[in-house]
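Customer escalation, tier 2.

The customer says the design service returned an amino acid string that "doesn't look like it belongs to this structure." They asked us to rerun it and document both sides in this ticket. The original structure tokens are below, unchanged.
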């Protein structure tokens, strides 16, 4: 008898997903280019219905038809190469699922190519890191709905659950799943940057120590900010380096890595004409962080303000409020980007359902997504999250502390671009008047680009 599901690519995500699928009662075949990973997994999977195969032919042969093949290979060329090698072996009607962090335009292309040939293709975003893949990730499948229905039982079974409901839902055609995963990561970048800025402000202005940070974040995690990222942040501050006894966080080099999904979110928001300043600035800050040598040199040359205005521990509440208000703005931006993409690509994204599956399994999982979910449930045409009562009220209530925190950071010379850009986004968005009358005049002055008037219809040009 043949196996029900196949997994190709046994790096951490693939391996853990294969184990997760097997744990849910499915029979699984696995294949990896180097046999060593396969053997390691087989040892770990003893007693489970999971078999190893050592060639693609053997792998494909071992699966029942229509075959359900999940590729967990590195995004980019490896996905195309794997598809190319599989094509001569599989049959029409088989389903290929790409569960990596693929670029959504690649997914659109691959869907078209494979669907034209009679195969099914699902581009599926999977979030939750190592632990999520093993115990229940959030899953964002894109492709033909018919193909999704064939894999739905497996995907919903292995996904995280919130209130007994799976954190997996059909997202939309072709690249929709990978697009939504990309925006998830963009939001993840902004969430992380905002938490890091809150940390920096409290470190510099209040002088909190790691054990105090642990307490503060632990407290925050009990309230509105309750989320996976706040939770792990609290935990990070407890870890001591076994050799030096110092807190590990203080020994880590301040240079951020990245694999590209945040950058794509910024690029696409420019392409689609949707402002996502808080997300994009989080990407810029990672770039700036990696210019370590330049920063060290500049720190010796460029002056900042002389005196730091110290604050007491009470100031943590203002920082918490600033963080929550900023977070709301960054989600407004990310969901705004999905809304526009849905229009432009004809995806018919259900933003409420997306918020719903983000509540569990994924890196940005948070209590607060319940509010986003109900905002879109109430009004699926909502143009901006900020306009919904709950968010409007919070931001309105917290704005004075938010402004105060940004002011403090600015006068102390502490870089907090995500806090500031979120606030600037809020202020721009709620401005009836922006100075673009002058900008239009400038454009017309030097380039005869014309302008419109507020008092008369038509297009005008002036000889300035
Ligand atoms: C997830 C994560 C994951 C991502 C890492 C690293 O949802 O599980 O988003 O997909 O690869 O978080 O991202 P960077 O290396 O770009 O920080």
């Amino acid at each position: 008898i043949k196996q029900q599901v196949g997994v190709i690519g046994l790096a951490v995500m693939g391996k853990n997903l294969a184990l997760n699928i097997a744990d849910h009662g499915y029979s699984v075949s696995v294949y990896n280019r180097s046999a060593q990973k396969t053997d390691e997994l087989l040892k770990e999977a003893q007693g489970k219905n999971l078999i190893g195969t050592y060639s693609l032919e053997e792998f494909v042969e071992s699966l029942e038809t229509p075959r359900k093949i999940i590729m967990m290979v590195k995004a980019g060329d490896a996905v195309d190469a794997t598809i190319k090698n599989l094509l001569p072996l599989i049959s029409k009607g088989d389903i290929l699922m790409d569960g990596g962090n693929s670029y959504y335009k690649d997914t659109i292309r691959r869907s078209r190519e494979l669907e034209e040939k009679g195969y099914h293709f699902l581009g599926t975003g999977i979030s939750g890191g190592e632990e999520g893949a093993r115990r229940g990730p959030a899953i964002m499948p894109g492709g033909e709905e018919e193909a999704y229905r064939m894999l739905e039982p497996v995907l919903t079974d292995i996904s995280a659950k919130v209130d007994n409901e799976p954190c997996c839902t059909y997202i939309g055609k072709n690249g929709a799943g990978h697009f939504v995963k990309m925006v998830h990561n963009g939001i993840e970048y902004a969430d992380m940057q905002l938490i890091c800025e809150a940390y920096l402000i409290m470190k510099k202005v209040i002088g909190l120590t790691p054990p105090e940070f642990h307490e503060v974040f632990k407290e925050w995690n009990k309230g509105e900010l309750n989320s996976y990222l706040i939770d792990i942040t609290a935990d990070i501050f407890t870890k001591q380096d076994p050799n030096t006894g110092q807190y590990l966080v203080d020994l880590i080099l301040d240079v951020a890595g990245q694999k590209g999904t945040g950058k794509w979110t910024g690029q696409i928001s420019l392409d689609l004409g949707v402002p996502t300043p808080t997300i994009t600035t989080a990407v810029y800050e990672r770039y700036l962080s990696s210019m370590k040598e330049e920063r060290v040199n500049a720190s010796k040359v460029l002056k900042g303000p002389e005196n730091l205005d110290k604050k007491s521990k009470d100031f943590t509440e203002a920082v918490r409020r600033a963080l929550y208000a900023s977070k709301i703005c960054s989600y407004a931006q990310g969901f705004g980007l999905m809304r526009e993409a849905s229009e432009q690509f004809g995806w018919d994204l259900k933003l409420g359902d997306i918020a719903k599956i983000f509540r569990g399994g994924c890196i940005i999982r948070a209590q607060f997504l319940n509010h986003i979910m109900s905002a879109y449930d109430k009004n699926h045409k909502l143009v901006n999250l900020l306009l919904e009562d709950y968010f409007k009220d919070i931001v309105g209530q917290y704005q004075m502390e938010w402004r105060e925190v940004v002011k403090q950071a600015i006068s102390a010379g502490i870089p907090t671009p995500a806090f500031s850009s979120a606030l600037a986004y809020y202020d721009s968005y709620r401005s009836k008047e922006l100075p673009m009358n002058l900008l239009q005049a400038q454009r017309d002055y030097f380039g005869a680009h014309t302008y419109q008037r507020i008092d008369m219809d038509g297009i005008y040009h002036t000889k300035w």
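Tier 2 assessment: The sequence is consistent with the input. The first strand starts at residue 5 and ends at 8. DSSP finds 19 helices and nine strands in the chain. Sent an explanation to the customer and offered a walkthrough call.
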